[in-house]
Amino acid sequence: MAITLKQPLAACALALAAASLCASASGATGDTHPKASKVLKQKEKAKPAKHKKENKKDKKDKKDAKTHKEEPKPDVADDEPIPDVTDTTLTEFSCELNNKVSVYRNLMDDSYIILRWQNHLRRMEKVGTTTGARRYESAKTGLVWIGIPSKGILLDSKQNRQLANECKDAEQAKPAMAAAPGDKTS
Fold this sequence. Notes:
This protein has about 190 residues and is of the alpha+beta class. The protein has 4 helices and 9 strands, in the order αααβββββββββα. It is elongated.
């Protein structure tokens, strides 16, 4: 039995015709490849938008907005009122990795502090300790500030991690004296 060249070519042509028929049918139903639809969306976004003409009032409003800048308000945690820092003393701490923490204390009431961390003000309530450390917590945000004589530490109790360590104010950052000036060892 001799195989002619016409039979394999006919089978190949039939397969190609079926493939093209399937491809056109899938295109007719609206199915597209996910990457192709992503590329089409990006092209749509890249098209320049048609601008409408601005009237004189809109231009004046934009100019006024540029000249009148509002003072930035400090961010506060979710739906908390802005803590009042009047009648408080400010202590700024420099921590490891160039982190900064500011603590506002009311000298008449040490039951709370207001802590500024990453431009957010948070009121933190005092928690009693047996070690003598000053511990303040914010139950809502999970922040914990622990102050000991040599340094301060800021913790996140919800994520169980340190946010800032080796936080020292100006007094704590001074080098310690090896011996008192009046002591002589001879």
